[in-house]
Amino acid sequence: MPEITRDEVAHLATLARIDLDDAELDHLAPQLSVILESVASISGVAGDDVPPTSHPVPLTNVFREDVVRPSLTPEQALSGAPASEQQRFAVPRILGDEQ
Amino acid sequence: MSDTLVAFDDVLASYDPALGLEVHVELNTATKMFCGCPAVFGGEPNTQVCPTCLGLPGAMPVVNGKAVESAIRIGLALNCEIAEWCRFARKNYFYPDMPKNFQTSQYDEPICFEGWMDVDVDGETFRVEIERAHMEEDTGKSLHVGGATGRIHGADYSLVDYNRAGIPLIEIVTKPIRGAGAKAPAVARAYVSQLRDLIVALGVSEARMDQGNLRADVNLSLAPKDSGTLGTRTETKNVNSFRSVERAVRYEMQRHAAILDSGGAIFQETRHWHEDTGVTTSGRPKSDADDYRYFPEPDLVPVAPSREWVEELRGTLPENPVERRARLQAEWGYTDLEMRDVVASGLLGPIEETVAAGASAQAARKWWIAELTRRANDAGVDVVDLGVSPAQVAAVQALVDAGTINDKLARQVFDGLLAGEGTPEEIVAARGLAVVSDDGALGAAVDAAIAANPDVADKIRDGKVAAAGALIGAVMKEMRGQADAARVRELILEKLA
């Protein structure tokens, strides 16, 4: 398991919108490596006959009927919003592009 | 600042274009992809939201079975393989159009893959290979407030409505389409148009491009002619009409060629299409921020459609499009040329519906191809987005067939329909458009025309019946077109017998 570099931690922090200063990066980068190594040790235990598992419960095809259920009222929906206007969620100015 | 463009023919002398199309289809399920909120268009802001589609803590998504069914039917209609087992994945990004900070999508396990669709362009068939069709959810709608332009740049803040967030989407991605050459723009348009026909025939979406039910992203690259390679592509987003798909491909071909001719390089980037000016502008370059850190969605179990279910759904598919075109042409008695125009205009479906609503095939073709297409071109929209429905066209033709109006008056009825003045019958009444076949009023006009044109009248008395045309014209003018021309002719001949 290759060590996770300080640059990679900085990149991840940027992607996750977490502002880390140099001291924090120095502190966290080795810790993340340790965590990854610990998780990687599981790979050593699993034999070739154990496939990677994303879902621990052996269930598939859990579907819902296409039937409308009540929505929240706009007042309820917006009640937790820090700011709203015109019955919409107000969010800070967006830089960059729409997805 | 405008881009330098190379003449289209010169592009083809030096380069081979490769196209790729990504089409998002918004399904017409009653509810959203992962919750029971209604998936209808046009509700008041944030009236169709719940803890799940708002991404509130603890809310759990559950897959809409009907959406999976629609995805499989689309895949089968596109000759795809259907995955025996596949998962949803989280596409992580920070943009407030999704309140969860991720979009639930599929990553390396699409439900449908490896298909194809044959596309007719000017009588030539192109096979478009389908890479994949996967399930995902639509995003919310942002309104940008403040700033000079009202567009995203310069906005002071944004207001978000999450009614659309979570509506089921199927994203259909082609493999690179090569070898289309000069027909690349037409192939792109034909693909989107014929894909829309297929979606409509499947009944899985309203498929209205003007309402965003069907949205196309156009990838284009150029490679040196006969090199067999693929160049760097640009992706032009949200090209929202058939016509624009064609124009955007053409524009990007000409723009790429100018850059490559001058020794420059194409940067992989997103571009925006501007319907009004017919140009694309740079969006943003692909960057580190496009690291979406996909991972399997832990809150949704895998989808594993049984082969029995897939075969059952295969049995519900509409007729194969190629066979359907051949059948309709035979039923309608159109010439090859007429049929080609209809298919190229994306009017197969509307004409079929118009005929089903009672109009003759020739009448339906006349109104859609001649009258409505001209109006759509004048308005700069696709004819299917003009706002006149097949049922309305059939209703107008029924009034013509009944002798209530003639073709000339029918055009005024279309004016009324486009102005939202009600049903064809209401428009005829409100505008006073019905033809006059009342002999009293017509007789007076005929007498006046005869009196005003004694020479013509004499000719008719002498048996030169063909001369009646001049008198009919005079009467029609007098009646402002609202006369039954056949009855006018009868009256003239009676009076001059």
From TrEMBL, chain A:
Alphabetical UniProt keywords: ATP-binding, Ligase, Nucleotide-binding, Protein biosynthesis, Transferase
Enzyme class: ligase
Listed GO MF terms: asparaginyl-tRNA synthase (glutamine-hydrolyzing) activity; ATP binding; glutaminyl-tRNA synthase (glutamine-hydrolyzing) activity; transferase activity
Pfam short name (any one): GatC
Organism domain of life: Bacteria
Catalytic activities: L-glutamyl-tRNA(Gln) + L-glutamine + ATP + H2O = L-glutaminyl-tRNA(Gln) + L-glutamate + ADP + phosphate + H(+); L-aspartyl-tRNA(Asn) + L-glutamine + ATP + H2O = L-asparaginyl-tRNA(Asn) + L-glutamate + ADP + phosphate + 2 H(+)
Cross-referenced InterPro entries: Asp/Glu-ADT_sf_sub_c (IPR036113), GatC (IPR003837)
EC number(s) stated in the UniProt entry for this protein: 6.3.5.-
Role, per record: Allows the formation of correctly charged Asn-tRNA(Asn) or Gln-tRNA(Gln) through the transamidation of misacylated Asp-tRNA(Asn) or Glu-tRNA(Gln) in organisms which lack either or both of asparaginyl-tRNA or glutaminyl-tRNA synthetases. The reaction takes place in the presence of glutamine and ATP through an activated phospho-Asp-tRNA(Asn) or phospho-Glu-tRNA(Gln).
The family this protein is said to belong to: Belongs to the GatC family.
Subunit annotation: Heterotrimer of A, B and C subunits.
HAMAP family: GatC
Name of this chain's protein: Aspartyl/glutamyl-tRNA(Asn/Gln) amidotransferase subunit C
Lineage: Bacteria, Bacillati, Actinomycetota, Actinomycetes, Propionibacteriales
UniProtKB/TrEMBL annotation, chain B:
Family affiliation: Belongs to the GatB/GatE family. GatB subfamily.
Keyword Signal carried by entry: no
Reactions catalysed, as given in the entry: L-aspartyl-tRNA(Asn) + L-glutamine + ATP + H2O = L-asparaginyl-tRNA(Asn) + L-glutamate + ADP + phosphate + 2 H(+); L-glutamyl-tRNA(Gln) + L-glutamine + ATP + H2O = L-glutaminyl-tRNA(Gln) + L-glutamate + ADP + phosphate + H(+)
EC class (word): ligase
Family annotation (Pfam families): GatB_N (PF02934), GatB_Yqey (PF02637)
Gene behind this protein: gatB
Any one biological process term the GO annotation gives: translation
Lineage: Bacteria, Bacillati, Actinomycetota, Actinomycetes, Propionibacteriales
Reported function: Allows the formation of correctly charged Asn-tRNA(Asn) or Gln-tRNA(Gln) through the transamidation of misacylated Asp-tRNA(Asn) or Glu-tRNA(Gln) in organisms which lack either or both of asparaginyl-tRNA or glutaminyl-tRNA synthetases. The reaction takes place in the presence of glutamine and ATP through an activated phospho-Asp-tRNA(Asn) or phospho-Glu-tRNA(Gln).
Top-level taxon of the source organism: Bacteria
Assembly behavior: Heterotrimer of A, B and C subunits.
GO molecular function: asparaginyl-tRNA synthase (glutamine-hydrolyzing) activity; ATP binding; glutaminyl-tRNA synthase (glutamine-hydrolyzing) activity; transferase activity
EC annotation from Swiss-Prot or TrEMBL: 6.3.5.-
Species of origin: Nocardioides lianchengensis
PANTHER family registered for this protein in UniProt: GLUTAMYL-TRNA GLN AMIDOTRANSFERASE SUBUNIT B MITOCHONDRIAL AND PROKARYOTIC PET112-RELATED, GLUTAMYL-TRNA(GLN) AMIDOTRANSFERASE SUBUNIT B, MITOCHONDRIAL
Keywords for this protein: ATP-binding, Ligase, Nucleotide-binding, Protein biosynthesis, Transferase
Gene3D superfamilies tied to this protein: 1.10.10.410
Residue intervals of the Asn/Gln amidotransferase domain: 349-496
Protein name per UniProt: Aspartyl/glutamyl-tRNA(Asn/Gln) amidotransferase subunit B
